[in-house]
Structures are given as C-alpha cells and as structure tokens.
Specification:
Nucleotidyltransferase, domain 5; elongated; Ribonuclease HII; EC 3.1.26.4; hydrolase
Length: about 200
C-alpha cells in the first residue's frame, strides 16, 4: 500500500496527498471527497479501500487517520450541482474543494482514477484506494463523513431509509421513490434511468 508513496519520497516529495471521493453512484445527496496527507513513512495497519471494510472498522480507522494525519480536507458537491454539471465534474469539484481546505499544502497528489484541476503534479491510479495508503485513507475519511451525513438526512427524510442504504439504488430505495416520489435532495438526473422500468414515473 506504500509502493507509490515510497517512489515519490525517494524522488524528493514529502507532502503527498491522497484524494478520493464517495457517493458517485448514489441517487441522493452530496458526493463527498477527502484529501489526506499522512506523515512520511507512517504505516496504518488495516487501511484499505473503504468499501472493503466494515462500518465499525472504518470508524476506528477514521479516528486513527484524524489523529495521525498532517492535514485533512473535505469537499462536497450537492445534488443540484450533480444535476447541473454531471457526476464526473461534481466529483472533481469536490476533490478540488477538499484540496483547497488542506491547511498544509501538498507537493504531489495521488488520486483515485481522476485528475484534479489544480496546478500540482499528480498521478491518477485505477483502483487507487486498494493500492495506495494515502488514497485509502482519503476514501475512509470521505466514506465515514458521508455516512454520517446520511444519518442526519434520514432524520429529515425518514421515508427513504437513507440510514440503511446511504442513498444507493437498493430495492428499498427504489420502492420508496415509487411510493413517495423524489425529495429535494435526490439527483433528478439519476432518477430517469433508475426508474425508467417503473413506467417512467418521473
């Protein structure tokens, strides 16, 4: 998980930010990105792609990353932004926001399968959250942050079951949409495709 970082450290880079986002495939709410700079040489046991970790394990690692990181930034793009500029551009915008919020500025970026619109050297790594500790740490920060947001959203829109499925297109979520229609925080641009089989309700 440190092969990419070690190569960059050997090349003279010391402040490497891992960047990742979560919520790209959701029907509801923000896409959330995180940027994390970890100390050179630090190894955090168990850090991996957030999707491969249990919720309990993610929470534990979230606390460890927050304690150990040199800097953490988090960015958001809401459903209206997703609908307006499309999900790919919204994810990139959230990543840029996350980088802008870092109190310590990085000298190199490792990004999960994307390019961020900032004037910094960067490397896009396919499946980077499973190959780079820095990206995996960002993945965990973003995932835990978004999951906690879903718990708050669930209080405002309990009919959709957001605390359970976190806004993804589960059977429960699709059935709730059929019954109640979309909320103001649903991504309208996603619903047509998802619900097309349900007699084009929206």
């Amino acid at each position: 998980m440190l092969d990419y970082e070690k190569e960059l450290w050997a090349s003279g880079y010391s402040l490497i930010a891992g960047v990742d986002e979560v919520g790209r495939g959701c029907l509801f709410g923000d896409v959330v990105a995180a940027a994390v700079i970890l100390p050179q040489g630090l190894v955090i046991e168990g850090v991996n792609d957030s999707k491969k970790l249990s919720e309990k394990r993610r929470e534990v690692l979230y606390d460890i990353i927050c304690e150990q990181a040199l800097a953490i930034g988090i960015g958001y793009a809401n459903a209206e932004t997703v609908d307006r500029i499309n999900i790919k551009q919204a994810a990139r915008l959230a990543m840029k926001q996350a980088l802008d919020k870092l109190e310590t500025k990085p000298d190199y970026l490792l990004v999960d399968a994307e390019k961020v619109d900032v004037p910094l050297p960067q490397l896009a790594i396919i499946h980077g959250d499973a190959l780079s500790q820095s990206i995996a740490a960002a993945s965990i920060i973003a995932k835990v942050t978004r999951d906690r947001m879903c718990l708050h959203w669930d209080l405002d829109y309990p009919e959709y079951g957001l605390a359970i499925h976190k806004g993804y297109a589960t059977k429960q979520h699709r059935e709730a949409l059929e019954t109640h229609g979309p909320s103001p925080l649903h991504r309208r641009s996603f619903l047509g495709k998802i619900l097309a089989q349900q007699q084009e309700l929206f």
